[in-house]
């Protein structure tokens, strides 16, 4: 019998264990040797780093699988979502507050005499339709937009039989939570329509120096509503250009209300104001109450901010966990999707479809957790 020949029918020897990435990928009781990435049940150590991922160094000098809140030298020693802080694993879970960086939107509404005309038989006046639409708009977005109210022409001018080309004036300054003040001002008898002219250019030029639109930390807009055209010998397009040229820039949205507007002039304002739409009509045309409500919501919905200021800056953005409702939103430093954090501006910003959901109001409640996830 040839003793050197292999025995027939003998079982094959078990294959050597494959490479491991950490103790949790090894059989129970074994750790992953960081030197060769092989599982072992006996690994000596002097520091926790000697033991590799998900493991720590016991007082007897042998490595063991780590446990939640175990000892550590660095994050790799920890299990789950924990991190190493001062030699102990933990997640440091903490909920952070987040406040939206709301844009400034100054609504500049035409109150010339023609706004007291009806848009059609049996309909309210254009002025009353506009008042209702503005109240609805500011109530809906009161917590996401910093609104102000500009009425033009004039401020506290008495109704006269003659016309005036006095530039408009700010009746409610741009700021947070202004819906109630704007509604009250619109219902004030002193803000009724009168025999005034339509000084669009003078009104926009007057806003170039308005400090309420000078906040460089947020976007700034004028939302101009008119049922007519410039008739005070000004150049509205040039005025819109001047607004865009200030620092920070101020863009001008334009809504033409009714069939008596000068389309070419409003196109020029929208184009030079930086809000021109695709197609022939660059501004927003509204021919009835529903059209005005729709134009308002489309414009304001498009400028709702996707950026937030956190209650305190995170030490490491990599340890932020961001949810809308119960959905975890991934970080995306390419800014195509998800979120990213800018330590310079200390702002959290969402991109892609997530931003679109915020603008549409369908994203759900924002939850910001630092250190570890708060929702399984």
Describe the structure.
- With 376 residues, this protein is an alpha+beta fold.
- The protein contains 7 helices and 20 strands.
- The protein has helices spanning 126-140, 179-186, 200-206, 236-245, 263-272, 289-303, 352-360, and strands at residues 31-33, 38-40, 55-57, 63-65, 83-85, 88-90, 94-96, 98-100, 104-110, 146-152, 169-175, 220-226, 251-257, 284-286, 307-310, 320-324, 327-329, 338-342, 347-351, 366-370.
- The strands form 6 sheets. Strands 11-10-9-12-13-14 form a 6-stranded mixed β-sheet, with helices on both faces.
- Residues 1-15 have low confidence and may be disordered.
Distance between the terminal alpha carbons, to the nearest Å?
65 Å
Number of helices: 7
Order of strands in the sheet with the most strands?
11-10-9-12-13-14
Helix content: 10-25%
How would a crystallographer describe the biggest sheet?
6 strands, mixed
Give the beta-strand count.
20
Principal-axes geometry comes out as rod-shaped
β-sheet strand percentage: 15-25%
Key attributes of the depicted protein:
376 residues, alpha+beta, six-stranded mixed sheet, four-stranded antiparallel sheet, 7 helices, disordered N terminus
Short structural description:
The chain has seven helices and 20 strands. By secondary structure, the chain is α+β, with helices and mostly antiparallel strands.
Please specify the SSE layout and strand pairing:
Blueprint: E1 31-33, E2 38-40, E3 55-57, E4 63-65, E5 83-85, E6 88-90, E7 94-96, E8 98-100, E9 104-110, H1 126-140, E10 146-152, E11 169-175, H2 179-186, H3 200-206, E12 220-226, H4 236-245, E13 251-257, H5 263-272, E14 284-286, H6 289-303, E15 307-310, E16 320-324, E17 327-329, E18 338-342, E19 347-351, H7 352-360, E20 366-370
